[in-house]
Write a structure and sequence with these properties.
The chain is globular and about 60 Å long. Helices cover 22% and strands 24% of the residues. The chain has a single domain, classed as Peptide methionine sulfoxide reductase (Metal Binding Protein, Guanine Nucleotide Exchange Factor, Chain A, Beta Complex). With 164 residues, the chain is α+β, with helices and mostly antiparallel strands. The relative contact order is 0.22. Strands 3-4-8-7-6-5 form a 6-stranded antiparallel beta sheet. It has a 3-stranded antiparallel beta sheet with strand order 2-1-9, with no helix packed on it. β1 and β2 form a beta hairpin.
Length: 164
């Protein structure tokens, strides 16, 4: 590779990234409610409390394999809680089948989720975490059903379902 090709590649990538960061299409800035008390726990606490799969997802941002969660097709009434701290994140009325292989929700319980920009796949995406314990749950994609148009695509291992 010559210098010119390298510089053109870097410039193209920089322009693409700048456009992605400035685009509001996939950005939803969600903050924790004022009444949420943020947890401060050690890595040892999380390793002792969570399963290895839960730890990988909630603490390091890993993604579970598609269709590996029993919650993907679950249609029961109830609430979905953070597997790390038990904070309610979604209810069954918010859930829908996105046919993507992960539990998906068109809305969330206000104040219980925070969004942040994730660069794991180089291009920035909007990720979200539990507002209380900071555990990573998934990504927000703006291809969901109306009225929100949002798909809160969640790792099932990061959730715990509690029937109504």
């Amino acid at each position: 590779m010559n210098r010119r090709a390298f510089l053109l590649g870097v410039t193209g990538f920089s322009v693409f990234t700048a456009l992605q960061l400035s685009s509001s299409h996939n950005k939803v800035d969600v903050k924790a409610a004022a009444y949420i008390i943020k947890w401060q726990r050690s890595d040892t606490y999380w390793r002792d409390t969570l399963t290895p799969a839960q730890y990988a997802i909630l603490r390091t941002g890993a993604t579970e394999p598609r269709y590996s969660s029993p919650y993907t097709k679950l249609e029961a009434d109830g609430t979905y809680h953070c597997a790390g701290c038990q904070l309610e994140l979604f209810n069954s009325a918010m859930k829908y089948d996105s046919h993507t292989g992960w539990p998906s929700f068109q809305d969330y319980i206000k104040g219980h989720i925070e969004t942040y920009t994730d660069f794991k796949n180089i291009a920035p995406t909007t990720a979200y975490r539990c507002a209380q314990c900071g555990g990573h749950h998934g990504h927000l994609i703006m291809d969901g059903p109306l009225p929100t148009g949002q798909r809160w695509c969640n790792n099932g291992q990061a959730l715990e379902f509690k029937p109504a």
